[in-house]
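Bench notes, bay 3.
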Amino acid sequence: MAQGRSLAVPYGAPVLAVSFLACVTTGLELSVNNHAADFTLSTELGPAISLSCLVQNSSQAEELLWYRGDGQVGLKEGNRVNISHICISPVNESDNGVTFTCKLARDKSVQVSVILDVQFPPRLSGEETLYVEEEKDVTLTCNSKSNPQAQSTWLKDNQSLTLQQSRHELYQTSELFRLSIRKVHKSDNGTYSCLVQSPLGNGMRDFHLIVEDKKPVFPKEAVIAAVVVVTVTILFGIVARKDKFFKVW
């Protein structure tokens, strides 16, 4: 019985120790900019923003880690124990939708994430002048980036474009607004404007469509046939007069 009691003490001790560590880890919390749970931070282009991560309920020094997406952020020595700050400057479009996460180094399951919602007015780009042969198809592509997503429409010569189901086709994504025209006519000549409207402002980009005369189709098959006929005729002529050629030589 004595042996049984002596074995019970070391067996139970590790269990108590593990339970104690679990309680310590579980009691720790992190907060980012006073948020103890994941959140979204709305901001604008340009001005820097600061994110501060703080350890809550800690009785000892705790190391913190920062991540931008899946990549770890490098921190200086004095900026990683119990409280840590990172600065994003300047804020640009590429930061939109990016997740920054603060984690406890010894238990990465203790973490708080912030998603950046970078808002900016429409920015437009695309080829300005397009030349197309009559009766060919053409596509005008307006690259449009904005947050929040903007409403887009097409104008022709500063007037609302009348869409014909058999000839016009629209395609739109969060960053693309496209107009396709089938078998263009001379009447399709003109300036097409991509108009984008958002709560933060509007944007417009002009596309000059120039419809050129239809080029005559080069009769390649007829030319090849003619060359073959001429070549064969010459060969037959040479064969027919081979005796004369031999006499000359």
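Next record in the batch:
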Amino acid sequence: MGNSALKAHLETAQKTGVFQLTGKGLAEFPEDLQKLTSNLRTIDLSNNKIELLPPLVGKFSFLKSLVLNNNKLTALPEELCKLKKLETLHLNGNHLRQLPAAFGQLSALKTLSLSGNQLRTVPTQLCGLRHLDVVDLSKNQIQNVPDTVGELQAIELNLNQNQISQISVQISHCPRLKVLRLEENCLELSMLPQSILSDSQISLLAVEGNLFEIKKLRELEGYDKYMERFTATKKKFA
């Protein structure tokens, strides 16, 4: 991609607040973007070959949406955590194994998508995020869901297509969790905390493709309570 093309993109971005450059084989985050640190609200660099996010990413103090799906990121810089206005972060299809320690400082974050990475656990940093609505951790290598999950504020948690065989009973204490997706994992029925059914806010539990038949779920104590919530929610959206 030539300099003139990049220049044209930068000029447009200056006017619109949106910089979108996808599928161009970029190997690095365009340095020239730092001229627009106070303009940009949205950066989308999906489907490139970016391996590193430079520390300067922390300077985009008005950024609301950062989309870097399908790149080659193996880590994120701590500076990313300075983005106090960031509401949407999409990092699907990278090689991330963990999140920066200060990730909980992204206080405005509402949507976090990390599908198709190499995470082995549910990052504890997520529990500090008070405005989180949707967390997508599907298609990772997560094997268990730890006790800290009880402090997660999300409304929807997607853990489909991991290797989960254990879930902390604390998950039923999540104050806002309505949708829990656990399809295609390694769960035995006995490892699914019954309190999810009997004593949680969860009104949609998706557990197809685990090591038990769905009809067995219906025999569990608390299933009728879960169905009440499920039906009430269905009516609300009907």
